[in-house]
Specification:
Length: 343
């Protein structure tokens, strides 16, 4: 019996430059100018305004923004598990990687797992620098596709700024094979824009054509959007991996679609892809398999960490997982001041 899965958005916040948390913040409004969608008459240059851009460095743990949100929205002296109504606190990147591990033939994923006040914290052993090389160009695409604070389009030479808004989500996994046993996970995901109907969404770029994107990136992107609880993702298609611009229309063969046709059409430069549609492409994965893998890993971690302050290193591969109870370094990944709030 497959694992039932549900994602509920329970809060929103943004982080200011001095690490101040602003509750209930919304991301920028989506720029819904029709000229920015489908086939473009002019390329979007993603290098403009990036000359002085520097990715902000931070000594923060990846969990710190979420923990600060939980502090600000929880009553002191109430048990942590009661406050969040969940067994796990982690990041969406860890959940994504654990779910994908069933199809992963690469290096093992290593994370720290630590039980504190009857809640299990999952922390990355090493920070993932995935896609950092094109981060400024992604921010420029987001600038094209959103409005400024006065609800006007950004000027093309405006400097790039890295601002983020997070949603706080609760993931519930229920297995019929385990007597409808459920596990709940709290995490926060970044979202990039809000449309006129109030839908939160993600903005991405890719240098891959549709077929290659389905083969190489569709699973990771689907899980990211599903975990963020966004109904759709907007993609800008870059010309190629070397050139940082969203290309103009070009002819493609439509055999990439679900119902092949022999004609050639113009490929969209900016696509709107519903999250629920991604598994219906000709993918080489099944979402049900991923969710079952995720549930089994979390259940095993919970069974291994029986007592408070138990810590271990978890190594996950396609074939299974190993646990080493020698992860002392993980102790300080959960700020003692945070834990003291719930005592």
């Amino acid at each position: 019996m497959p694992v039932a899965i549900d994602v509920e958005t329970i809060g929103k916040f943004s982080r200011l430059a001095k690490k101040a948390t602003v509750l209930d913040a919304l991301p920028p409004r989506l720029n819904e100018n029709k000229n920015l969608y489908g086939t473009l008459s002019e390329e979007l240059d993603l290098t403009l305004g990036s000359e002085e851009y520097k990715e902000s460095s931070s000594t923060e743990n990846d969990l710190d923004p979420l923990l600060d949100y939980i502090l600000k929205t929880s009553k002191g002296g109430v048990a942590l598990k009661e406050s969040i109504d969940a067994e796990f606190i982690t990041t969406p990147r860890i959940l994504n990687a654990l779910a994908r591990s069933v199809y992963n033939n690469g290096n093992p994923l290593e994370i720290y797992a630590s039980r504190q006040q009857d809640v299990i914290f999952l922390c990355e052993k090493e920070k993932n620098s995935e896609e950092n090389s094109s981060i400024s160009y992604l921010h420029k695409f987001k600038q094209y596709m959103t409005l400024d604070e006065n609800q006007n389009p950004h000027k093309i030479h405006d400097k790039i700024q890295n601002k983020s808004t997070n949603v706080v989500n609760k993931l519930t996994l229920t297995s019929g094979n385990s007597g409808n046993f459920s596990l709940k996970v709290v995490y926060s995901s970044k979202v990039d824009a809000v449309d006129r109907d109030g839908n939160l969404l993600e903005l991405k770029t890719t240098a891959l054509g549709h077929n290659k994107w389905v083969e190489k990136q569709s699973l990771r992107h689907y899980l990211q959007a599903f975990l963020a609880n966004v109904p759709y993702v907007i993609y800008g298609r870059r010309t190629n991996i070397q050139e940082q611009n969203i290309h103009k229309a070009r002819a493609i063969n439509t055999t990439r679609f679900l119902q092949p046709r022999s004609t050639e059409v113009e490929e969209s430069c900016v696509d709107t892809i519903p999250t629920s549609s991604i598994p219906n492409y000709r993918v080489n994965w099944k979402k049900e398999t991923c969710f079952e893998k995720l549930f089994n890993i979390l259940q095993k971690i919970e069974s291994k960490l029986e007592f408070d302050e138990d810590v271990m290193v978890v190594k996950v591969t396609k074939d299974g997982m190993e646990c080493e109870e020698n992860g002392e370094e993980c102790y300080e990944l959960v700020n003692p001041l945070f834990l003291n709030h719930f005592e």
